[in-house]
Amino acid sequence: MRKAIGFVVLFLAMLLGCRTPYEPEVPVTELRVLVVEGYLDTEGLKSELKLSRTAPLGAASAFIPELRAKVVLKSAGGQIFPLQEAGVGTYIFEKNIDEKQSYVLEIELGSGERYVSGGLQPIVTPPIIDAGFKRDEEGVEVFVSTQGNANADDFLWTFEETWIFRPRIRTSYIYIPELKNVRDRKDTEQTSLCFKTEPSPGILLETSSRFKDQVVFEKTITEIPKGNERIMERYSILISQKGLASKDVPFWEILKKNTEDIGSIFSPLPSLIGGNIQSLDAAKNPVIGQVSLGVIRQKRIYINQVQVSPWNYLDPKFNDCTIGEEAVLANDYQTIFGNGAVVPTRPLMAGTTIIGYYPSSRRCTDCSLYASKLKPTFWID
Questions:
Q1: Which residue in 94, 121, 129, 291 has the most C-beta neighbors within 10 A?
Q2: Are residues 96 and 224 in the same domain?
């Protein structure tokens, strides 16, 4: 959602940018709109609320995290559930609450500004019936199936993708400047196995009443083009299914339209996507955002490269990666390997003795330049 609202801000920037050299005097308050976003799970699953400010036009980042805010969820029965700040504008909710009650979210910023949500009625999201993938000529399609009901007709899906990333050339050797010598890498020094993680880039919506018996069958969650990096070895996707109140759907539809149609003069402007958060101050500080409550249903699937073979992943930006034809001998280790840009990859043997190593570039051998070496806690080999 943050990226989607970023598109809206970019759209305004484009409108302003087309009329140079005229430079309108936009009030600072209009450039620092509070953005509130979150779907809080009601059954104890760790979920997040994000608070940020839109940045002035031309800033390096589109959003500035809102820190040191006090955020609480209050039930109609008087119970108070504080959210815990986790840094970078993120506030954590991890409570099992009564889904029969209604709630409001209250926000007090460090500056003293106060905001409140409209009434929030938790949605008991139906379970995911099935999640899987299909291979075709274009690549892989990941899908989900579910069934709506009278209380949960509209759905929002988000997902998080994680996959193994390997460098073009793998090496088990490392040069140690203090020893002026090459040795085998320890497990903590390996650079041949990394993991990439990315959140869903768009907004996926569906209304189940459009289908017979409200069954949403094999809804496409994401498509992976043939030969894409994500299935170079093993890929995982965590799909989150969230039921939406019917009154919340217009907000998401407008935001979805902006992300897909941005740049068109017919795109709705931010003033039309206010959401369910409002200012309690006399100045009525501008705010954009949507907060929902409900049960988040999740399903994780894995896809191995062998399951979609032939895949033939080959990233052209590494096409120049080769192992040198001339080995680096011991006297030249410091000169060639000393600054870390070039690394030893294969040994040169004289009988049973290593007398040198064939070199390659670090950018071709070190996956940590592009991904994380830390194995996710959920990962199953």
A1: 291
A2: yes
